[in-house]
Amino acid sequence: MSKPVLLVCLLVILIVTSQFEWRQPLVELDTATSSSQKQQQISDREEAVKEKMIVYFICS
């Protein structure tokens, strides 16, 4: 891959990944989180991984 194409792909990956919140709370303040909320969090994370995979395969 040429350098400009590689730089553009890295820039796109940086922009996409900067849109996601990666920091996890150190202490779970609400210990009574329902299973539906936990399932939604898992689904959101899975969706983020899928989006990253799409960007990766587009750029490679």
From TrEMBL:
Keyword Isomerase in record: yes
Entry keywords, A to Z: Isomerase, Signal
Keyword Isomerase among record annotations: yes
Molecular functions (GO terms): isomerase activity
Cleavable signal peptide: 1-19
Source organism superkingdom: Eukaryota
Protein name according to UniProt: Peptidyl-prolyl cis-trans isomerase G
Organism: Arabidopsis thaliana (Mouse-ear cress)
